[in-house]
Specification:
single chain, Immunoglobulin-like, Type 1 dockerin domain, 13-stranded mixed β-sheet, 32% strand
């Protein structure tokens, strides 16, 4: 797991994983056009993606389906490749015009005229390897979409077993391999008018007769004798009855605008959130979320939200991202949003407007005040979101002048001369020598008072964000204060990350 914040790495680990199966493929991950949906080949007789042929078995019934987590799925295209020496595809059994291989599916139920469906077997006669292609648009005019938050069936096929394979073989979801006397068919899902990639593919695995038994996922029995039955068996990971689809919209990022017309990033989170990180790419005068930005290829900033239970939600376990938005022009800064504007001081917001790889774009990381439950980003309900950052096009502020608390003369040293100078300033006998009142406020009391002269503070900071002061020195002593400042420096470095400049606000 790549990380943004070293000191909170334990919070950022994504716990989702895929079972160790030869037929499970991570098709995309973290890309701007990657969605958390899963496309699967399921054998009707077993209810999962693995089938052991029986002696003399003549046909195999197959369903192609998708675990739909994205809202607004309007169509798709894909190929199915198979061993032409062992299998062939039977003609469609569908009676309705234009319904080839779609009858009895959720896809058919969602069709609204006029729709588009080209689903057909292909092979050498059309200049293609053996297989099947399907391209579907549910409607050209109506808002026809698949139902979100469930498994949707997309096609039903019957394969003839022409020759028993001698070893394991696949009915494999294929991208840009098969054609019908034309361009090869790409594997994608159309969401709200844009081509997206399903994050995970589950291919169909066919085993020859006589080997170990295969788990059937809905009969209540331990068919393969490994001690796990039905959905408890890793072999059933792709079975429709075993797939748990996270509720839609529980965790995600989306773009919007505020009352001033500025671009904002919103976040939905079912539980209160402790941290988040995301990247945004520029392209074609638009902004889109991306997990491909970072300092180098080995340190990319993933799209992640960490809840207050320490669980991270990424694109692989239910996090969704919204559509692109028009770019606001030159981007000069990232500001706090409404949701965390009042947390400044105990939390950490960092960003980089010039990433080493994946640019042009920017990435952002945030960690709440972990010592205060009140400063967690609140949970959101249905249709709600937290405005977490504002994308600013204003000119950046002037450089911040560094200072030392108690350094009244601004020479970088604290001694009795500073004490005398503060006394004179407080008594009104002398004007301050430079415009940084915080330098005179040695104990961070928001006032310049006589007692602070005796403290001779050692805390370093800036005129807009002091990190330490004499109050801490009083509480911890000189040694404790030194340790505290060292921890602050380490924390700041880990927040900045990767050994490169980043704005921290």
């Amino acid at each position: 797991m790549r990380r943004l914040f070293g000191w909170v790495a334990v919070l950022m680990f994504c716990c989702a994983y895929l079972p160790a199966q030869d037929n499970v493929q991570v098709f995309c991950q973290g890309a701007a056009n990657c969605i958390p949906d899963q496309m699967e080949v399921i054998f009707d007789s077993t209810g999962n993606s693995t089938l052991q042929l029986a002696d003399g078995q003549a046909t195999i019934d197959v369903t192609v389906q998708t675990v739909t987590q994205s809202e607004g799925v309007q169509g798709w295209s894909y190929g199915l490749a198979h061993d032409g020496n062992s299998f062939s595809i039977a003609p469609s059994a569908c009676d309705g015009a234009g319904l080839d291989y779609l009858c009895g599916t959720d896809a058919q139920a969602a069709l609204v005229n006029p729709f588009f469906n080209v689903s057909t077997a292909v092979g050498a006669a059309v200049n293609s390897p053996e297989g099947f292609i399907s391209a579907v648009v549910l409607s050209f005019i109506a808002p026809a979409t698949l139902t979100t938050g469930q498994t949707n069936t997309m096609a039903k096929l019957t394969y003839n077993v022409d020759a028993v394979p001698g070893e394991s073989t696949m009915i494999r979801l294929a991208d840009d391999e098969l054609s019908n006397n034309g361009p090869t068919v790409a594997l994608n899902i159309t969401v709200a008018g844009e081509a997206k990639l399903p994050e995970t593919l589950v291919h169909g695995q066919v085993l020859p007769p006589g080997g170990p038994a295969v788990e059937i996922c809905d009969n209540g029995a331990d068919d393969d004798g490994d001690g796990d039955a039905d959905c408890d068996d890793a072999d059933c990971a792709g079975a429709a009855n075993c797939v748990v689809v996270p509720p839609v919209g529980d965790y995600g990022f989306s773009f919007g605008t505020n009352a001033d017309g500025l671009v904002v990033v919103n976040m939905s989170n079912e539980l209160p959130a402790l941290a988040f990180q995301f990247g945004v790419s520029y392209g074609d005068d638009s902004l889109s979320f991306s997990g491909n930005l970072g300092t180098d290829q080995d340190r990319l900033v993933e799209l992640l939200i960490t809840d207050n239970a320490g669980n991270s939600h990424g694109v692989g376990n239910g996090l969704t991202v919204g559509a692109a938005i028009a770019a606001p022009g030159e981007i000069n800064g990232i500001l706090r949003g409404v949701a965390n504007a009042g947390f400044e001081g105990g939390d950490f917001l960092a960003f980089d407007l010039d990433p080493g790889v994946g640019g042009p774009g920017f990435f952002v990381g945030y960690v709440s005040d972990l010592d205060s439950d009140a400063n967690q980003l609140p949970a959101t309900g249905d249709g709600e979101s937290n405005q977490i950052v504002v994308v600013s096009s204003e000119a950046p502020p002037p450089p911040v002048e560094d200072f030392y608390r108690g350094d009244a003369d601004g020479n970088g040293r604290i001694n009795v001369a500073d004490a005398v100078l503060v006394i004179q300033i407080v008594l009104g006998n002398m004007n301050a020598r430079y415009n940084c009142p915080d330098a005179l406020d040695a104990n961070e009391s928001a006032r310049v008072t006589l007692p602070v002269v005796l403290l001779l503070a050692y805390g370093a900071g800036t005129c807009i964000g002091p990190l330490g002061g004499a109050v801490l020195m009083q509480m911890l002593g000189a040694v404790g204060l030194f340790v505290f400042m060292g921890s602050q420096i380490s924390l700041r470095k880990s927040l900045i990350g990767f050994g490169m400049p980043m704005r921290v606000v």
